[in-house]
């Protein structure tokens, strides 16, 4: 087992604007585990706690209760930089004043002991790994397409050789053709590197295509989980049934328009 989440809880407070009341949201308790090279999808409506759970997994915030346990290596050493995160809007995570090379240099300077020449080589190798060119080292954010920006975000996550990538709605801002290319890239990287992925997504079609297991969340808790095809083929909860029905309606509409 690579990752174990045990009874994790977190309470989120949001200050109300103008005449709106303050809001409190409680996540948990949430429990699940992940094996090496596995893909887990987390699905639910807006406000279900998906993104909050993603931040907890990536270490952006700490749980108030429970544990997130990362297994030691086979020889007993502690794993470092095991989990990295990709955000939905990759452009927001890229400083427009810095080149791609500078952004990735910062990540390595802060988290590794590599010298500048070794950092440069690792950066260029990682850019190629995510389907970019070595020359993209010199590019700035405004010079990149949406798909290329997402690949840079993926390169920044991969450059520290993590074992798990947490991706929060990574395809939402991409057009369908670029989305398809990115999905295929991630599947190839997983096959080549043995990466584990945690996907936060609304897209049932992509979830069915790429995930081994799925967790359905509602109001801060997991209401259904299991192997992806089993959950979506025989949904037990009303919410899962509605999600599947909504997806099938979109599929039917797409084919109706295509055949019209």
Automatic annotation (TrEMBL):
Main localization, broad class: membrane
Membrane-topology annotation of the record: Peripheral membrane protein
Domain of life per record: Bacteria
PROSITE patterns: ABC_TRANSPORTER_2
A Pfam cross-reference name: ABC_tran
Gene3D superfamilies found in the cross-reference section: P-loop containing nucleotide triphosphate hydrolases
GO molecular function: ATP binding
Keywords annotated in UniProt: ATP-binding, Cell inner membrane, Cell membrane, Membrane, Nucleotide-binding, Transport
Domain ABC transporter: 3-244
Cell location: Cell inner membrane
Family assignment from sequence similarity: Belongs to the ABC transporter superfamily.
Protein name per UniProt: ATP-binding cassette domain-containing protein
Native species: Agaribacter flavus
């Amino acid at each position: 087992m690579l990752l174990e989440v045990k009874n994790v809880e977190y309470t989120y407070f949001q200050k109300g604007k103008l005449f709106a009341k303050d809001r409190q949201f409680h996540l948990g308790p949430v429990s699940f585990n992940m094996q090496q090279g596995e893909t887990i999808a987390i699905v639910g409506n807006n406000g279900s706690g998906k993104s909050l759970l993603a931040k907890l997994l990536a270490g952006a915030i700490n749980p108030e209760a429970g544990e997130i346990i990362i297994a030691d290596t086979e020889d007993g050493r502690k794993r470092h930089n095991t989990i990295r995160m990709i955000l939905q809007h990759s452009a927001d995570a890229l400083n427009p004043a810095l080149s791609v090379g500078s952004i990735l240099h910062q990540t390595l300077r802060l988290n590794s002991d590599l010298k500048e020449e070794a950092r440069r080589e690792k950066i260029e190798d990682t850019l190629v790994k995510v389907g970019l060119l070595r020359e993209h080292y010199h590019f700035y954010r405004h010079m990149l397409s949406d798909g290329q920006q997402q690949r840079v975000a993926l390169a920044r996550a991969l450059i520290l050789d993590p074992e798990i990538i947490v991706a929060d709605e990574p395809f939402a801002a991409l057009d369908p053709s670029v989305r398809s290319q990115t999905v295929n890239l991630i599947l190839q990287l997983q096959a080549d590197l043995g990466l584990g992925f945690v996907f936060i997504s609304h897209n049932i079609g992509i979830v069915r295509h790429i995930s081994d297991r799925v967790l359905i969340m509602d109001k801060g808790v997991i209401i259904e989980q299991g192997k992806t095809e089993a959950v979506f083929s025989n949904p037990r909860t009303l919410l899962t049934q509605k999600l599947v029905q909504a997806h099938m309606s979109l599929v039917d509409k797409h084919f109706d328009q295509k055949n019209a």
